[in-house]
Specification:
The complex is a heterodimer of chains A (113) and B (114).
Chain A (H helix, E strand, L loop, with lengths): L2 E3 L4 E5 L4 E3 L2 E3 L5 E7 L5 E7 L5 E3 L5 E5 L4 E6 L8 E8 L6 E3 L3 E6 L1
Parallel strand pairs in A: 2-12
Antiparallel strand pairs in A: 1-4, 3-9, 5-6, 5-10, 7-8, 8-9, 10-11, 10-12
Chain B lengths: L4 E3 L2 E4 L5 E6 L6 E8 L3 E9 L2 E5 L6 E5 L5 E5 L8 E8 L9 E2 L3 E5 L1
Parallel strand pairs in B: 2-11
Antiparallel strand pairs in B: 1-3, 3-8, 4-5, 4-9, 5-6, 7-8, 9-10, 9-11
Classes of the chains: A mainly beta (113), B mainly beta (114).
């Protein structure tokens, strides 16, 4: 069964600083990987996805993520954080042909002015 | 706006009662997923329907049931409600079923059981 671990429950960064949110997954083959963002009181919005091919994927809002098979990781990065990026971020893994995904527990991002 | 709609936005009810949550997927999407989000359990997958048929089941209680109708909207029925059922319930949709694609989430229904 697949699983996802987001080691950081809460991260605080200053506006303009770089950001990296960690995600580790467990799955027997190459999974489908996703990052979602949830603003307070809102549903989840897809930031980016990895299915195959180039291991560095670009998403919306200036986010990118890198798939590293050897480390079973799919970390999310942004070079310069904006105050509006404050939200909860979820990493998810989907197994091909499984019809469902498994979400991590989320990382809450606080942005300091 | 993801294109997925959920009603109602908020629901307050008493223990022992039954409620129905409604979801309309994005136009053209055949799969509907239901999730429960609570502070202590995180985001939990409940159930998936594809084109009217149940496709996958997650941590869904026996007191909960769902269905997807011919027009592809879905309903999640929660019965014999307990205080612990208070949570945000999300519906998501995607175009396919077993080929896994990204999901588009609705804004959620916040259920409060008193």
């Amino acid at each position: 069964a697949q699983s996802v671990t987001q080691p950081d429950i809460h991260i605080t960064v200053s506006e303009g600083a770089s950001l990296e949110l960690r995600c580790n997954y467990s799955y027997g083959a190459t999974p489908y990987l996703f990052w979602y963002v949830q603003s307070p009181g809102q549903g989840l919005q897809l930031l980016l996805k990895y299915f195959s091919g180039d291991t560095l994927v670009q998403g919306i809002k200036g986010f990118e993520a890198e798939f590293k098979r050897s480390q079973s990781s799919f970390n999310l990065r942004k070079p310069s954080v904006h105050w509006s990026d404050a939200a909860e971020y979820f990493c998810a893994v989907g197994a091909p042909n499984a019809g469902k995904s498994t979400f991590g527990d989320g990382t809450t991002l606080t942005v300091k002015p | 706006d993801s294109g997925v709609t959920q009603t109602p936005k908020h629901l307050i009810t008493a223990t022992g009662q039954r409620v129905t949550l409604r979801c309309s997927p994005r136009s053209g999407d055949l799969s509907v997923y239901w999730y429960q989000q609570s502070l202590d359990q995180g985001l939990q997958f409940l159930i998936q329907y594809y084109n009217g048929e149940e496709r996958a089941k997650g941590n869904i209680l026996e007191r909960f049931s769902a269905q997807q109708f011919p027009d592809l909207h879905s309903e999640l029925n929660l019965s014999s409600l307990e205080l612990g059922d208070s949570a945000l319930y999300f519906c998501a949709s995607s175009p396919r079923d077993t080929e896994f694609y990204e999901q588009y989430f609705g804004p959620g229904t916040r259920l409060t059981v008193t």
